[in-house]
Structures are given as structure tokens and as C-alpha cells.
Design brief:
Elements (H helix, E strand, L loop, with lengths): L2 E5 L2 E4 L4 E8 L7 E7 L6 E7 L5 E3 L7 E6 L4 E6 L8 E7 L2 E2 L3 E6 L1
Length: about 110
């Protein structure tokens, strides 16, 4: 059974940093594309970053480029999203995804 479990969300002030983690299980972690999405209240879910775990190729949405960094620890079956210079518009529930599987999400709130 594929499972994705996010952690690391919380409340932070503008300009602050957080690191989200996505612990994966139930599939061959080292040969998949794993992504981070977010959904703010009243808005559609948007993709913000993804990584190919086999070779480390990454992609970022323009809205987070230069501020967020995606990385993996293949030995720990974990994908990280390091977020810095956070802004109030980054407030959302952040989800981890691979194929049709989603985690439960973790709330990130950035206060102004």
C-alpha cells in the first residue's frame, strides 16, 4: 500500500523558514517523480515543485523559485521541501504526491 505522510508545517512569520518532510512507503522510492502541491483557501491546488528521485532533476513553479528547495533522502524514503523567505501568500495546506497518491497535507501559515 502506497502511503505518503507529510510533516513539518506550522506558523511562521513573514521572512521565516520551514522544512516540510514527506515520508513515503509502499513503492520503489528511488525511481519515481514526487511532487509538492499546495492549496490555499478558496483556490485550486497548484503544483509548486517536483523531483525525479532517480537522478535528482527538479522543477519549481515561478512563485517559489529561488525560495524553496526540494531534496530527497532516498535511504530514508523521504522528500523534503525547504522553504525560506516565506510570505503570507505561501499560506496553504501543502501536499505530497506521486502518481495518483496523495498525503493528508500539512498546514503552513505565514503571518504578516
Amino acid at each position: 500500500e502506497v502511503q505518503l505522510v507529510e510533516s513539518g508545517g506550522g506558523l511562521v512569520q513573514t521572512g521565516g523558514s520551514l522544512r516540510l518532510a514527506c515520508l513515503a512507503s509502499g513503492f520503489r522510492f528511488d525511481d519515481y517523480t514526487i511532487g509538492w502541491f499546495r492549496q490555499a483557501p478558496g483556490k485550486e491546488r497548484e503544483g509548486i515543485s517536483c523531483i525525479l528521485t532517480k537522478d535528482g532533476i527538479t522543477w519549481y513553479a515561478d512563485s517559489v523559485k529561488g525560495r524553496f528547495t526540494i531534496s530527497t533522502d532516498n535511504g530514508a524514503n523521504t522528500v523534503y521541501l525547504s522553504m525560506s523567505d516565506l510570505k503570507p501568500e505561501d499560506t496553504a495546506v501543502y501536499y505530497c504526491n506521486t502518481a495518483q497518491y496523495w498525503g493528508q497535507g500539512t498546514q503552513v501559515t505565514v503571518s504578516s
